[in-house]
């Protein structure tokens, strides 16, 4: 299968690359060290149209292909994966389910400002006792007349407290298992909806990760996303698409680390020659480039299947776990090429290594991705 990018796709990739190198890269090490989420960078990405790429024009998007969005996430993550996850959590995990499952009124009210980038989105599924076993939801939403009363909490939520719009899940019928879960759209300023601990993270430190706390939050019935009792399917279908974006993040992280290592290997002189002339380094670079290409092809294939309206769950899971596994290998190799300098936070590659680790974990651990792939093969 060949991926010849169209002129428009190449131009978009180039524009995002230039934007990231000019506007985002100069401050990335400093923001990473300070664990600083800078919403103004998201606003600039929105001005470039990156928050609405594949969303319908009717609701503030550009109506182009999903693959273009995936390439944008890759290019953003090549420089700053914190911004990459902030944007993809908003687009893939909040705008996307509203687009796929929302009513016209919900789309008008919530999707339009999200697609335009005026609002930021977030997604709340994970709870202290519902990680890989996402069906074990302990948040409860009780119907009382024209609204639900929501109680419970969510952890590890990207964009929490900065986002205006939240897609969250809760049990509406605890006796019905996965068929008792319902999706809701929440607004940041709903009474009883607050934010807990800010996570002190190994990587993606330029993004914001916090708890969501619900205490008797009154959620109008018109904010149910999809059908009552069908929330688990909404969550799973959403994560299928989200996993392609995580794969793109991993490809971007690996690409960024590889480019730094390649440049360093050409300029670092030891034994009177650039270390790149040493075959052990040359072969390492060859392996890095090959793994990144393979991961990118898996990622673009999954995105193209989604664009074509074909099933893509298995391919998204394959891309996600392969790309994130090789991202960890490639970023570790980049540190090895830098030697002692690679271990210092004064140089760029340590940050890539720290950022790579989370891509093996979030939006479904790589163990869960293998459950999805093996389930599909053995079905
Ligand atoms: N799309 C749509 N529906 C899906 C689906 C998908 N990709 N995967 C499962 N479903 C449906 C099933 O068809 C089933 O429907 P019925 O009730 O009509 O039969 C229902 O969901 C339950 O499916 P299943 O029995 O397979 O659910 P499990 O509880 O066994 O969970 C896994 C399956 C493990 C795959 C799921 O819990 C999962 O993906 N866990 C990881 C969660 C995750 O990614 N967390 C990260 C949060 S965001 S950082």
Describe this structure in words.
The protein is of the alpha+beta class and 379 residues long. The chain has 11 helices and 10 strands. The protein has a 4-stranded mixed beta sheet with strand order 1-4-5-8. The protein has a 4-stranded antiparallel beta sheet with strand order 2-3-7-6, with helices on one face. The relative contact order is 0.12. The mean pLDDT is 97. The protein binds coenzyme a persulfide (COS).
Short summary:
This protein is of the alpha+beta class and 379 residues long.
Structural class: alpha+beta
Q: Which ligands, by name, code or SMILES, are bound?
A: coenzyme a persulfide
N- to C-terminal separation?
25 Å
Largest sheet: 4 strands, mixed
Shape: globular
* Mean pLDDT reading: 97
Rg from C-alpha positions? 21 Å
Strand content: 15-25%
Helix % is 40-55%
Number of strands: 10
Number of helices: 11
Strand order, largest beta sheet: 1-4-5-8
**What's the SSE pattern?**
HHHHHHEEEEEEEEHEEHHHH
Please state the oligomeric state of the protein chains shown.
Answer: single chain
Low confidence ranges? none
Strand-helix topology:
Layout: H1 7-24, H2 28-34, H3 39-47, H4 66-79, H5 81-101, H6 104-116, E1 121-124, E2 140-144, E3 147-158, E4 165-171, E5 181-187, E6 193-198, E7 209-220, E8 224-225, H7 231-267, E9 269-270, E10 273-274, H8 279-307, H9 313-338, H10 349-359, H11 366-378
Parallel strand pairs: 1-4
Antiparallel strand pairs: 2-3, 3-7, 4-5, 5-8, 6-7, 9-10
Coenzyme a persulfide (COS) binds next to α7 and α11.
């Amino acid at each position: 299968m060949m991926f010849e990018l169209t002129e428009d796709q190449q131009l978009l990739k180039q524009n995002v690359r230039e934007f990231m190198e000019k506007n985002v890269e100069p401050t990335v090490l400093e923001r990473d060290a300070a664990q600083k989420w800078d919403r103004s960078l998201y606003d600039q990405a929105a001005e470039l149209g990156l928050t609405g790429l594949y969303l319908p024009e009717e609701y503030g998007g550009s109506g182009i292909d999903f693959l273009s969005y995936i390439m944008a996430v890759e290019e953003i993550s090549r420089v700053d994966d914190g911004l990459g996850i902030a944007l993809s959590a908003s687009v893939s995990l909040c705008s996307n389910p509203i687009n796929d499952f929302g009513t016209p009124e919900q789309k008008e009210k919530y999707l339009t400002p999200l697609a335009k980038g005026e609002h930021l989105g977030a997604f709340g599924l994970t709870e202290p006792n519902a990680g890989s076993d996402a069906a074990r939801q302990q948040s409860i939403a009780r119907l009382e007349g024209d609204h639900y009363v929501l109680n419970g909490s969510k952890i590890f939520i990207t964009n929490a407290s900065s986002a205006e719009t939240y897609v969250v899940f809760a049990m509406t019928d605890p006796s019905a298992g996965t068929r008792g879960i319902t999706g809701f759209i929440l607004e940041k300023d709903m009474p009883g909806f607050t934010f807990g601990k800010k996570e002190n993270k190994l990587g993606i430190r330029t993004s914001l990760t916090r708890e969501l706390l619900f205490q008797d939050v009154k959620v109008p019935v018109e904010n149910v996303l999809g059908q009552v009792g069908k929330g688990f399917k909404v969550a799973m279908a959403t994560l299928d698409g989200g996993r392609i974006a995580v794969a793109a993040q991993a490809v971007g992280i690996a690409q960024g680390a590889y480019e730094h290592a390649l440049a360093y290997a050409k300029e670092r002189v030891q034994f009177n020659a650039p270390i790149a002339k040493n075959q052990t380094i040359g072969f390492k670079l060859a392996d890095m480039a090959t793994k990144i290409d393979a991961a990118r092809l898996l990622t673009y294939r999954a995105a193209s299947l989604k664009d074509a309206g074909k099933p893509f769950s298995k391919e998204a899971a394959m891309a996600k776990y392969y790309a994130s596994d090789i991202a960890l290998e490639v970023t570790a190799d980049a540190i090895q090429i830098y030697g002692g300098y690679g271990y210092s936070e004064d140089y760029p590659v340590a940050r890539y290594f720290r950022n790579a680790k989370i891509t093996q974990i979030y939006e479904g651990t790589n163990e869960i991705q293998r459950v999805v792939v093996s389930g599909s093969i053995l079905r």
